[in-house]
Amino acid sequence: MSNIYKALLGAKAVIPYVTCGDPNMAVSEQLIVALCKAGADIIELGIPFSDPVAEDAALIESNSRALGAGITSADIFGMIKRVRARVDTPLVLVAYANSVLSRGIDNFTDSMRDSGIDALILKDVPHEESAEFRSACADKGIDYISSVSLSSIDRAITIAEQAEGFINCYMSPDECDCIAQLSAISRIASACDIPCVINADCYDSELTSSLMQHAGGIVIPSAIVTIISNCGRDSIAAAADYIAAARRAIK
């Protein structure tokens, strides 16, 4: 049983996303530790990328700030290793394929294992093209997390049947589609032996609350980077307060 899976066995998991190196590496290190202490059950750590096509405006700006600070993958793995010495919260690395391929898949997954990463999400690799990455992760004891859209239910179920750790479910922002999305996440959850996790910054919205009936947790993808955008180096306390509030609200 992986650390990721075990973190989803109790209460609904709160999973904030942090871009490594935004606004700088020292703040990222302190921020991750603070979020763990505030009640985060799992933390997603993004490797900044120059062309983050799968991101919203807040995350694109966050990537730009980190890259502008000169952050490298070696810096990130070093920082994660220091964090891992201080906390035991499961950590999920979020990247684009080029970040992995530029170092070599085996070298990259070695660095993940050695720094204490528990799982990997690749945002631009379709399930049908993930076999090599999935195999390399398995060899190092790392979960490869699959992502699905609630609007493509048949494909989502096929992917879920082969998934590890948790199923990363992207919901539609359309509140009018609530019934369809409830049906979709219920069917996905029934098709696999691991929890579904939804991506939604508005953890207290009616749609999110409804979907959480069938989910094991929630990824909060943009809220922390937005706090960093507003507060910069003074963002740690505000970000920790946000996650503490989410932890109290999500049962």
Protein described:
The protein has helices at 3-7, 25-38, 57-68, 73-84, 97-101, 105-115, 131-139, 153-160, 178-190, 206-211, 223-231, 236-249; strands at residues 13-19, 43-46, 91-95, 119-122, 143-144, 146-149, 167-170, 196-199, 217-220. Helix 2 (25-38) packs parallel to helix 4 and helix 4 runs parallel beside helix 6. The chain is an alpha/beta fold and 251 residues long.
In short:
By secondary structure, the protein is of the alpha/beta class. The protein has 12 helices and 9 strands. It has a domain at 3-145 and 216-245: TIM Barrel (Alpha-Beta Barrel), CATH 3.20.20.
SSE arrangement:
Elements: H1 3-7, E1 13-19, H2 25-38, E2 43-46, H3 57-68, H4 73-84, E3 91-95, H5 97-101, H6 105-115, E4 119-122, H7 131-139, E5 143-144, E6 146-149, H8 153-160, E7 167-170, H9 178-190, E8 196-199, H10 206-211, E9 217-220, H11 223-231, H12 236-249
Helix pairs in contact: 2-4, 2-12, 3-11, 4-6, 8-9, 11-12
CATH C-level label of the domain at 3-145 and 216-245: Alpha Beta
Principal-axis shape equals globular
Largest sheet properties: 9 strands, parallel
Stretches where pLDDT falls below 50 for ≥5 residues?
Answer: none
How far apart are the first and last residues' alpha carbons, in Å?
23 Å
In the CATH hierarchy, the third-tier topology of the domain at 3-145 and 216-245 is known as TIM Barrel
**Overall pLDDT:** 90
How many β-strands, per DSSP?
9
The main sheet orders its strands as 5-4-3-2-1-9-8-7-6
Helix share, percent: 40-55%
Number of helices: 12
> What would you report as the Rg, rounded to the nearest angstrom?
17 Å
* Helix-strand sequence: HEHEHHEHHEHEEHEHEHEHH
Assigned CATH architecture of the domain at 3-145 and 216-245:
Alpha-Beta Barrel
